[in-house]
């Protein structure tokens, strides 16, 4: 394992900069998650580190060594693709053995067998080792692809939404498993996802990408509680953070340039003993909790309500904001 | 229908559950309508495919000759016995085997190699693809005729090119006129004409391999050769086999090109099965005998193709 760094990396496709001036260091043994919507440059960032794309500007360093000009094979990275990139005519075992059987590696066959058996057990595919790769379910294929990366001990594991094609149950299971494996191996990992739960639960640090720029990098807690702009704030949290114009709360003390007030659902308290300006528009029952949809003038606001709530549609309530976040006209954070 | 019984309640019911097509079309059942659609095709198929086949089987057991009137006698399996003991027939089968095996071997190797090059997407690859595909789009009659000119010892470009490259006198050999060269002359023409076809199928195979598999292999440190052997070749194998199947069947019954180029000559060195068949049927007018030969060829091709398709499916399932 090693430290991996991108320094002022820019990659253009035609006139479009897929990533622009991105600097990012993944420390040895760290699990960094890149978060962002489609087209934000997450995958390109991974591909640039792997050497599947060459940088237009900037540099890639792996373990302190400049590798920008080197072929993927020489960079000692493992890559898990979003699609099941298995070798279809090979068995599961041979698929996992494929990287180890490279003539440049010279891993003895019994050593290969040992590590495949171990990893396969971890991923619950040990009973499928002799199957053809094409005779597997989608979830199994992706676990084989992950396994093929894990049998190696590369400088860094690069994973491009490896769990996105799996069903919810398996995704949750593998999420925990991957995190555990990463911790056990002390693996350096750069992981791309648009799933905020994966980002929050797995990452040591989260990097949020916006149109090819890294807009914030920090621990999940920092990103969640202290977002640098509305874009970052809306990436995390379910339901989404409530963004409301400042004029809705005239009595709230705010910094002068603040235009928008952001309040997470759990920080929006309802005072039902006071009549207020907000009206209950809809109540969603989710079993363990309830989403309360309120309308305040022409804005809709979502908050959480406990089981014991006796609120009904049409009731009017007063709102209390805890720990509000302020953003200026451009959506940038303003601190009081 | 039901114009007179169309009361409000019935109309309501009809709106709630759409009535089956059969009820709406003059009391025909759904199955009846299905037959109505498939019927004409089946009749046509019976008339131009199945009936001639059965009739040919019948004729193959008779001494029928199409140019003679007179009694048609049932001769049992005598036609078949004669064919299997006929040295000319076996010579024809050998000529066919030579033609089929060599054309397939050369076309597959060349076609795949060309497809591999074209797939590299160099500048202007579209133009080159089109250019390479041209021979395949010509009519065999045209190809046969102008290759005859190309093979002319005096004025032919082929002989000129050979003599230019090797220094051999261009009038010292005749591609179509010599026993040792004629079988290769027809192989060359077929390769020229049909390699693009094999290339096209192989290209489809190569294009069906997703890029990320190669990228995964690259990250996994597979050399270009290892990528070729463990990804490119096995993943395009079903396509290659399909091309071989198509060319095999086509060339087994190859007639037009060879008939134009050599008419089976010199002697009978390029007399492939289909030419022998045509001679027996329309020159010697031994209709019963040639029918038996046609049936034997049919069974042979059918059997081989079946075995081959089974193998193909096995490769596909891997």
TrEMBL record, chain A:
SMART domains: AAA. Pfam families: ABC_tran, TOBE_2. Keywords: ATP-binding, Nucleotide-binding, Transport. It comes from the Bacteria. Gene3D superfamilies: 2.40.50.100, Nucleic acid-binding proteins (2.40.50.140), P-loop containing nucleotide triphosphate hydrolases (3.40.50.300). One of its GO terms (molecular function) is ATP binding. Signal peptide: none annotated. Residues 4-236 form the ABC transporter domain. Belongs to the ABC transporter superfamily. This is ABC transporter ATP-binding protein.
TrEMBL record, chain B:
Residues 93-308 form the ABC transmembrane type-1 domain. It is found in: Cell membrane. The chain crosses the membrane at residues 33-58, 99-118, 130-150, 181-206, 227-249, 289-309. It is a multi-pass membrane protein. It comes from Dongia sedimenti. This is Sugar ABC transporter permease. Its main location: membrane. It comes from the Bacteria. Belongs to the binding-protein-dependent transport system permease family. Keywords: Membrane, Transmembrane, Transmembrane helix, Transport. InterPro entries: MalF_N, MetI-like, MetI-like_sf, Sugar_ABC_transporter.
């Amino acid at each position: 394992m090693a430290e991996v760094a991108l320094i002022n990396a820019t990659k253009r496709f035609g006139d479009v900069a897929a990533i622009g001036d991105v600097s990012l260091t993944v420390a040895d043994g760290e699990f960094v998650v890149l978060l962002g919507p489609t087209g934000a440059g997450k995958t390109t960032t991974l591909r640039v580190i792997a050497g599947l794309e060459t940088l237009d500007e900037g540099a890639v360093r792996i373990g302190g060594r400049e590798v920008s000009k080197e072929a993927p094979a020489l960079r000692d990275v493992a890559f898990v693709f979003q699609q099941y990139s298995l070798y279809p005519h090979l068995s599961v075992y041979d698929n996992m053995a494929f990287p180890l059987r490279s003539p440049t590696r010279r891993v003895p066959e019994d050593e290969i067998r040992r590590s495949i058996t171990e990893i396969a057990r971890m991923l619950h595919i040990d009973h499928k080792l002799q199957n053809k790769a094409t005779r597997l379910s989608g979830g199994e294929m992706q676990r084989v692809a992950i396994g093929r990366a894990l049998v190696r001990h590369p400088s860094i594991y690069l994973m491009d939404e490896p769990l996105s094609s799996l069903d919810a149950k398996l995704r949750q299971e593998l999420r925990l498993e991957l995190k555990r494996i990463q911790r056990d191996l002390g693996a350096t990992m750069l992981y791309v996802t648009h799933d905020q739960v994966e980002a929050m639960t797995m990452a040591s640090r989260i990097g949020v990408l916006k149109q090819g720029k890294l807009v914030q990098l920090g621990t999940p807690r920092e990103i969640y509680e202290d977002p640098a702009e509305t874009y970052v704030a809306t990436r995390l949290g379910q339901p989404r953070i409530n963004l409301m114009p400042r004029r809705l709360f005239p009595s709230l003390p705010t910094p002068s340039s603040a235009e928008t007030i952001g309040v997470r659902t759990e920080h929006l308290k309802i005072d039902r003993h006071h009549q207020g300006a907000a009206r209950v528009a809809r109540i969603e029952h989710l079993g363990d909790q309830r989403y309360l949809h309120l309308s305040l003038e022409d804005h809709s606001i979502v908050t959480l309500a406990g089981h014991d709530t006796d609120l009904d549609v049409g009731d009017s309530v007063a709102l209390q904001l805890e720990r509000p976040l302020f953003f200026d006209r451009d959506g940038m954070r303003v601190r009081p | 229908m039901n114009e007179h019984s169309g009361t409000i309640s019935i109309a309501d019911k009809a709106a709630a559950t759409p009535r089956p097509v059969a009820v709406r079309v003059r009391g025909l059942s759904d199955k009846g309508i299905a037959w109505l659609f498939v019927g004409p095709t089946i009749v046509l198929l019976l008339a131009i495919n199945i009936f001639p086949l059965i009739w040919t089987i019948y004729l193959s057991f008779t001494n029928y000759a199409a140019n003679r009137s007179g009694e048609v006698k049932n001769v049992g399996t005598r036609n078949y016995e004669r064919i299997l003991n006929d040295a000319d027939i076996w010579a024809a089968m050998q000529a066919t085997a030579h033609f089929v095996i060599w054309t397939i071997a050369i076309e597959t190797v060349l076609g795949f190699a060309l497809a591999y090059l074209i797939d590299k997407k160099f500048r202007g690859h579209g133009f080159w693809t089109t250019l390479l595909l041209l021979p395949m789009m010509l009519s065999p009659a045209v190809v046969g005729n102008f290759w005859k000119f190309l093979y002319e010892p005096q004025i032919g470009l082929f002989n000129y090119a050979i003599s230019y490259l090797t220094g051999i006198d261009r009038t010292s050999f005749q591609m179509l006129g010599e026993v040792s060269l004629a079988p290769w002359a027809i192989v060359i023409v077929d390769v020229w004409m049909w390699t693009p076809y094999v290339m096209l199928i192989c290209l489809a195979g190569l294009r069906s391999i997703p890029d990320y598999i190669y990228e995964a292999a690259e990250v996994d440190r597979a050399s270009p050769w290892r990528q070729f052997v463990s990804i490119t070749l096995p993943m395009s194998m079903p396509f290659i086999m399909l091309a071989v199947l198509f060319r095999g069947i086509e060339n087994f019954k190859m007639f037009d090109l060879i008939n134009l180029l050599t008419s089976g000559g010199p002697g009978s060195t390029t007399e492939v099965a289909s030419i022998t068949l045509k001679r027996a049927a329309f020159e010697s007018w031994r209709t019963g005998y040639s029918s038996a030969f046609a049936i034997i060829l049919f069974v042979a091709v059918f059997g081989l193709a079946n075995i081959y398709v089974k193998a193909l499916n096995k490769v596909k399932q891997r």
